[in-house]
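Tokens as discussed.
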């Protein structure tokens, strides 16, 4: 079992920055990949960014590429998502999810942290 707890969300003005954190516990050593996803009200959950737990390889959605950075701290078992130049469309609940299977299936997910963007 892997437990994930997100933090760092809040209210920020458009153009501002936020850093989200995802703290893993339990069998964190079994994680293969950790991803961030966003869900806006009434919309489907969408992929934002992901990172390989072993070698730090990253991947981003086109909508956040160049504005966001995903990173990890293997000692603290924490994944971060630094988001800059925030836009209104970045608002939503951000979830981190972990894959322990090596595929593209995320089998653990946190409760989410709310990001609200004001104009």
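Sequence:
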């Amino acid at each position: 079992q892997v437990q994930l707890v997100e933090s760092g969300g809040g209210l920020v003005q458009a153009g501002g920055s936020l850093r989200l954190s995802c703290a893993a516990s339990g069998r964190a050593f079994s994680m293969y990949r950790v991803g961030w996803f966003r869900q806006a009200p009434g919309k489907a959950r969408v992929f934002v960014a992901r990172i390989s737990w072993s070698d730090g390889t990253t991947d981003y959605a086109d909508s956040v590429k160049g504005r966001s950075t995903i990173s990890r701290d293997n000692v603290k078992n924490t994944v971060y998502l630094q988001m800059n130049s925030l836009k209104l469309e970045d608002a939503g609940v951000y979830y981190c999810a972990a894959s322990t299977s090596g595929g593209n299936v995320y089998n653990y997910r946190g409760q989410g942290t709310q990001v609200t963007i004001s104009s």
